[in-house]
């Protein structure tokens, strides 16, 4: 599959590994793919994100991803649902961080791995497969970073929720990239 990735898409995958490494994560997750996409310039995905007004709000997206990481990867919708059951997620996070330090719920931190080696978790692999399916459905021969962005917006989870909160959805990205007489990415 990776032989079908464009240079931009490969750079996003490599960037996701770097993001996971910086975070000390034991695996590459969907949030790392989104962070790597946010770092891109001059690509189809970066064009779409900028056209949808995310260019100047990228830091807000990073902060929202950090907040979700602190909640142990729960989406805001999941946090709200638990609140409806009387479970105070922010209170639990505060107590755990008080006892174990900031970011204690963020997942395993790995020491001693060699640089650049992080396995992709199931959700991130699903995004890569989703990018392949998106490209195939559009009859594109190659998988670009725009297909990774579309796959992230289509898969339920923290990245899709954070992007949607900032006006970036599957429909809006599709509209900007492919249709309805609006500007199209070159």
Can you characterise this structure?
- The protein has helices at residues 7-23, 30-38, 44-51, 58-70, 76-84, 89-100, 122-137, 145-154, 158-165, 170-178.
- The chain is globular.
- The protein is mostly helical and 186 residues long.
- Mean pLDDT is 85; it is low at 108-113 and 181-186.
- The chain is built from ten helices and no strands.
Give a brief outline of the structure.
The chain is about 60% helix and about 0% strand.
Low-confidence stretches: 108-113, 181-186
Name of the CATH homologous superfamily: Clp, N-terminal domain
The assembly state of the depicted protein chains is single chain
Q: Helix count, per DSSP?
A: 10
How many angstroms separate the termini?
A: 24 Å
Considering DSSP H and I runs of 4 or more, what fraction of the residues is helical? Answer: 55-70%
Outline, from the CA principal axes? Answer: globular
**Topology-level CATH name:** Double Clp-N motif
Rg calc: 17 Å
Q: Report the strand count.
A: 0
What's the CATH first level? Mainly Alpha
Outline the secondary-structure elements.
Layout: H1 7-23, H2 30-38, H3 44-51, H4 58-70, H5 76-84, H6 89-100, H7 122-137, H8 145-154, H9 158-165, H10 170-178
Protein name: Peptidase
Domain Clp R: 2-186
Keywords: Repeat
Descriptors:
Double Clp-N motif; Clp_N_dom_sf; 186 residues; Clp_R_N; globular; single chain; Peptidase; repeat; mainly alpha
């Amino acid at each position: 599959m990776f032989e079908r990735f464009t240079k931009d898409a490969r750079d996003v995958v490599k960037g996701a590994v770097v993001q996971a490494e910086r975070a000390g994560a034991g695996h590459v997750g969907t949030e790392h793919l989104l962070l790597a996409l946010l770092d891109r310039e001059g690509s189809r995905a970066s064009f779409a994100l900028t056209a949808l007004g995310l260019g100047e709000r990228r830091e807000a997206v990073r902060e929202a991803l950090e907040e979700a990481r602190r909640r142990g990867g729960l989406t805001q919708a999941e946090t709200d649902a638990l609140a409806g059951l009387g479970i105070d997620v922010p209170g639990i996070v505060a107590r755990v961080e008080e006892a174990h330090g900031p970011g204690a719920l963020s997942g395993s931190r790995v020491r001693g791995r060699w640089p650049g080696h992080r396995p992709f978790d199931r959700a991130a692999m699903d995004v890569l497969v989703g990018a392949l399916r998106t490209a195939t459905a559009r009859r594109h021969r190659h998988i670009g970073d725009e297909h990774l962005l579309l796959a992230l917006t289509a898969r339920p989870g923290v990245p899709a929720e954070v992007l949607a909160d900032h006006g970036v959805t599957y429909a809006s990205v599709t509209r900007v990239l492919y249709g309805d007489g609006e500007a199209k990415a070159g």
